Amino acid sequence: MEKIGRSEIVSRLFQRRAVLSAGQLVSALVFGGLFHAVGIPAGWLSGAVVGVIAWGAILPAGLAARARVPKPLVDGAMILAGVVMGAGITPEALEAIGAYPFSLFALTLAVVAVTLACAAFLMRVYGWSRDDAILASLPGALTAVLAVSIDRKADVGRIAIVQSFRLLVLMAILPFLVSLTTDGDPRALVGSGQAIATPGAFALMLAAALVVGLLFERLRVAAPLLLGATLASAFLHVTEIAPGVVPPEIATAAFVVIGAFIGERFTTLDRGGFVPLFGAALGVFVIGLVVSAAFALLTAVVAGVGTGEALVAFAPGGLEAMVVLALVLGVDPLYVGVHHTIRFLGIGFALPILFRSNQSP
Length: 361
Known about the structure:
mainly alpha; Na+/H+ antiporter like fold
């Protein structure tokens, strides 16, 4: 028989996708617990993101790209997060929708301003083409942006790096900014201090969330499982058919999985290609954050919404990441969810207008 050395055994072991994925989840859990223990806002979520990036950094690039959180686990976490978000939608929260028209108008202006300012920066300072600059500057809807990038034969690699860098830094900085505007213990588990749902009510929430989420998926709604679960949970809570919140430990586990899922985006990036793009990525992040924050603060004053809610709602990040971050930070998830959904759909509809053919001008 062929003798296999210890190093060869370890190498073969780490070739297995299951081992890589398990290590990724363990790293997410460890870093999430560490961030939570030292009091970092949204520690379980942001720590999980950092943990996955750290896990990917110690692996060769080829192996890091193979580590994936199992899709059923991600789907389950999205459903749980939606149930948690829906539990916070009360009749009082629904009354706050009256403040949304001005806020949504301000959001539209913010998206346009961020895109134009960042695109101008990339074109004038770094000499990017119009297509690449606009696609890298659009705040959110990364899946749609990359799909159009491929169709336009744009530089998908650098667009993905700039977009992903913005989301990563937002996940690291935004919790601290929001924690300065809100009260409470940043380490508090979601749902702590509230009545826990009975097993029967919890089961009904999950069943309804799954049905509506799958329906939304069939209808091609953005973030279908998260938004479908939110709608189902909100209905059950507003009507008091299934009151109570998800047990905090279960909710926290879901946020760790979602954090790991978000962190995966950065383990697949071209490591060698990031360094030359650092200046462009940093510039786009700073410009986008400053412009978005200015519109958010204006909206907070004019519309009378909370500063924390406005900052997360206007943040130029991904739909799922920002909505879940709102949950963890304890700001109004309904307000944040509506704004990021509208922005996602708006960008999705605007892209075919901005790029009408697969030939660059």
